[in-house]
Amino acid sequence: MAGDLASRQVLFVVEWESEEAFNSFRDDPDLADLHPLRESGTASYVWQTFDGLDMSDPADVSLDDVLAVLKP
Predict the structure, then answer these.
(1) Residue 8's closest CA among 63, 59, 45, 54?
(2) CB of 14 closer than 8 Å to CB of 67
(3) Is 53 exposed, middle or buried (0-12, 13-18, 19+ CB in 10 A)?
(4) pLDDT per residue over 9-50, tens digit each?
(5) Model pTM?
(6) What distance in Å separates the CA atoms of residue 6 and residue 42, rounded to the nearest whole number?
(7) Residue 33 zone, left/alpha/beta (φ > 0; ψ -120 to 50; rest)
(8) Residue 14 and residue 47 in contact, taking contact as beta carbons nearer than 8 Å
(9) Helix/strand/coil (H/E/C) assignment for every residue in 29-71
(10) How far is CA 35 from CA 6, 42, 44, 45, in A?
């Protein structure tokens, strides 16, 4: 983490099949025009990636489980 980060009021959690799938999305030249629009649509945009919690079956994951992964 670099710099001061303000508390989040909105959080989107997106699960990718793999790190390779995420990198493919991030680096896709066909989506190059999309990323600046998304990133400019907020005053404080943060990408946070982590391995661990398998959320493929949300019924088996509690909100506490998700929050535990996101805490510093």
Answers:
(1) 45
(2) no
(3) middle
(4) 777 777 778 888 888 988 999 988 988 887 777 776 677 676
(5) 0.48
(6) 13
(7) alpha
(8) no
(9) HHHCCHHHHHHHCCCCCCCCCCCCCCCCCHHHCCHHHHHHHHC
(10) 22, 12, 14, 11
Is 72 or 61 the better-scoring residue by pLDDT? 61
| Residue with tokens 């030249």, as numbered in its chain | 29
Task: Give me the amino acid identity at 37.
Answer: L
Greatest pairwise CA separation for the chain in angstroms: 37
Q: Specify the amino acid at residue 36.
A: P
